[in-house]
Amino acid sequence: MTGLAAHDVALSLGGRAVLHPSSVRVAPGELVGLIGPNGAGKSTLLRVLGGMQAPDEGEIVLDGRSLATAGRTWRARTLSFLPQDEVPPPPMRVADLVALGRLPHRGHPDRARDSAAVTRALAETDLLALRDRPGSQLSGGERARMRLARALAVEAAYLLADEPVAALDPAHALAVMASFRRLAAGGTGLVVVLHDLMLAARFCDRLVLMRAGRVVAQGQPADVLTDAAMRAVYGVEVRRVEDAVIPWALAGPQD
Ligand SMILES: Nc1ncnc2c1ncn2[C@@H]1O[C@H](COP(=O)(O)OP(=O)(O)OP(=O)(O)O)[C@@H](O)[C@H]1O
């Protein structure tokens, strides 16, 4: 069965349960938004889903195979992971740093294919003009786009991205979300951690809402982003706005 799924995964860190038994799934061609307040467990669930952190309980299944026993090379080609934390880039050209995303394919070297994948990733992240600059000299948002480009260059069947647009200006954030939609239309399955609920509502097929280490709702954006859920999970009130692109706004914290 195709798809990437976490079945009842649970994890304790430092003696604290940070993930209670949780299940989540992404199908090929689906863009899933993982949302929830700070500390809800989004990064933890994404890391477990991507095989970066083994769960204490439960199982991850990637296209019918248990992730725990899948071969590392197949895994690295099939699943691309963009972590939240940034490691300062070495003083290499942007294009060479993005080309590191092709490392999982080095068993079958194909320079033309690698080069085309890197160019596509640079174009999708609006970095073509910066391709010869040292990565270490980029701005924060440019570096975030470069890290995303490296993850895109893998051209994996599944992309897991932790807050990929958090550092981006509105135009680049919209462009990246549109790029995710194009990837999904081409069959890629994506799980993306987002704090911008407007982008989540507008671009995602499905949202998974977390709170205190638990998945508390999942479904279509309109069914998850209810006024009651916003109040209960985020502690904010919602103001509905007629005829807007996004027909609601966050009015402010609860009293
Ligand atoms: N190594 C660790 N040891 C103990 N607790 C941890 C560890 N890593 C994370 N946690 C805790 O696990 C909880 C979930 O963290 P996580 O990073 O998954 O949250 P998040 O939803 O991604 O938050 P944010 O929106 O702030 O990025 C937090 O309470 C965090 O303090």
UniProtKB/TrEMBL annotation:
CDD domains: ABC_Iron-Siderophores_B12_Hemin. SMART domains: AAA (SM00382). It comes from the Bacteria. The keyword Transport applies. Gene3D superfamilies: P-loop containing nucleotide triphosphate hydrolases. The keyword Lipid biosynthesis does not apply. SUPFAM superfamilies: P-loop containing nucleoside triphosphate hydrolases. Residues 4-237 form the ABC transporter domain. Coiled coil: none annotated. Keywords: ATP-binding, Nucleotide-binding, Translocase, Transport. GO terms for molecular function: ATP binding; ATP hydrolysis activity. InterPro entries: AAA+_ATPase (IPR003593), ABC_transporter-like_ATP-bd (IPR003439), ABC_transporter-like_CS (IPR017871), P-loop_NTPase (IPR027417). It holds the Pfam family ABC_tran. PANTHER family: HEMIN IMPORT ATP-BINDING PROTEIN HMUV. Part of the ABC transporter complex HmuTUV involved in hemin import. Responsible for energy coupling to the transport system. This is ABC transporter ATP-binding protein.
